[in-house]
TrEMBL record:
It catalyses: adenylyl-molybdopterin + molybdate = Mo-molybdopterin + AMP + H(+). Its cofactor is Mg(2+). Catalyzes the insertion of molybdate into adenylated molybdopterin with the concomitant release of AMP. This is Molybdopterin molybdenumtransferase. Its EC number is 2.10.1.1. It comes from Planosporangium flavigriseum.
Length: 396
């Protein structure tokens, strides 16, 4: 089977997810963090909705001195100033009374026997309606992630709920009789390094991980049973590790055939990680087959699972940032090379210990520099970067 070019595989995974994007749901603001807007966020009113004082001081009408006729605090409805020569004490955030010509700062004024004197500044000291946004203006597009800032913005507009795409639900199945789940490697068996980390990567990509099982025995029946159990648990995406080739204990392809799956992508022209796959299962579900070698599995995760989840959440396919190489990176012939890099002084440098079975380089990296087929990454070249999914503050 001819491997799919890497950029085409990434696009195909995204299209598959976008075509199966989860139905929108209306949720309270407090429950929306990390989800995705299913409709544009538009203002329900002008922001601010009424003229609002920017300072503590005196709202005045006409020339000084001004007779104090009241006080306006935040939350009050301000009556108009009745005549020239009158003023009201006003607090920051309070509604500016009709008829106000200036607001005099409290620290630049004098109150004596009920009369205020002071020198207004030339520019208005209040916010006007619509200064931040006009009623009906789009503030955030559909597909934008809901951040704490977005929640605060929605609240300021008057929203109690927002329309969002629910987080896709994911399950992780680790295949391999050779794997240990505790203790050091010994007697021909190795420690499972994917089961503990894949759920965390998936959560960083916006998925809710409900199930992580392994090791699953290296038999066809065990593979089929485990995948069915994951689907029955409600998973939208099942991520498996290992078994993506056609060796004597690689049962994933026969299991997919038994389950009635169709391939979205089956092997990708990328190194490391080319024996990756993405299959569509009946009922609008997906299975992502990640290779068993740890670094290859993360290449597959960022190449296929990340765009699939973006599509399922109704988000745009993430545009890849670019980096400038601080050292050369050799290409991999007709395959795209995804090379782990670290950042230093604004430049991207390849890291060591990057064999497909190694994780030391991965733990030191910010992502994969993309070296196109039939090219080398020359020092000083600008290339795309596939970022590792990280939380705020984790990037170096």
């Amino acid at each position: 089977m001819t491997p799919v070019p890497w950029d085409e595989a990434r696009a195909a995974a995204y299209r598959a997810g976008a075509a199966a994007a989860r139905p929108a749901a209306e949720v309270p603001l407090a429950e929306a963090d990390g989800l995705t807007l299913a409709a544009p966020l538009v203002t329900l009113t002008d922001l601010p909705a009424f003229p609002t004082s920017s300072i503590d001081g005196w709202a005045v009408r006409g020339p000084a001195p001004w007779r104090v006729v009241g006080r306006v605090l935040a939350g009050d409805t301000a009556p108009p100033l009745p005549d020239d020569g009158t003023c009201v004490e006003i607090a920051t955030g309070a509604m500016v009374p009709a008829g106000t010509e200036h607001i005099v700062r409290v620290e630049e004024s004098t109150l004596d026997n009920g009369l205020v004197t002071g020198q207004p500044r030339p520019n208005p000291e209040w916010r006007v309606p619509g200064e931040e946004a006009a009623r009906g203006e789009e503030l955030l597009p559909s597909g934008a992630p809901v951040t704490p800032g977005a929640i605060g913005l929605a609240a300021s507009c008057g929203y109690d709920t927002v329309s969002v795409r629910p987080a896709p639900r994911a399950a992780v199945l680790v295949f391999g009789d050779e794997l240990l789940t505790s203790g050091p490697p010994d007697a021909g068996r190795i420690r499972d390094a994917l089961g503990p980390q894949i759920p965390s990567w998936l959560r960083r990509l916006g998925a809710a991980v409900d199930m992580s099982v392994g090791p699953v025995k290296d038999t066809l029946d065990a593979h089929v049973d485990a995948i069915r159990a994951a689907l029955d648990s409600g998973a939208d995406v099942v991520c498996t590790t290992g078994g993506t080739m056609h060796g004597p204990v690689d049962h994933l392809h026969p299991a997919l055939a038994e389950l009635g799956a169709t391939y979205v992508v089956n092997t990708v022209a990328v190194r490391p990680g080319f024996p990756m796959l993405l299959a569509a299962l009946p009922g609008g579900k997906f299975l992502a087959g990640l290779p068993g070698n740890p670094q290859s599995a993360i290449v597959a995760l960022t190449s296929l699972v990340a765009p699939l989840l973006a599509g399922l959440q109704g988000r745009p396919l993430p545009a890849l940032p670019t980096v400038t190489l601080g050292a050369p990176i050799r290409g991999r012939g007709s395959y795209t090379h995804l090379a782990l890099v670290r950042m230093d002084g604004g430049l991207a440098y390849p890291v060591s210990h990057v064999g497909s079975s190694m994780l030391r380089g991965l733990a030191q990296s910010v992502g994969f520099a993309v070296v196109a087929p039939d090219t080398d990454g020359e020092k000083g070249a600008t290339v795309p970067l596939v970022p590792l999914p990280m939380l705020d503050g984790e990037r170096s």
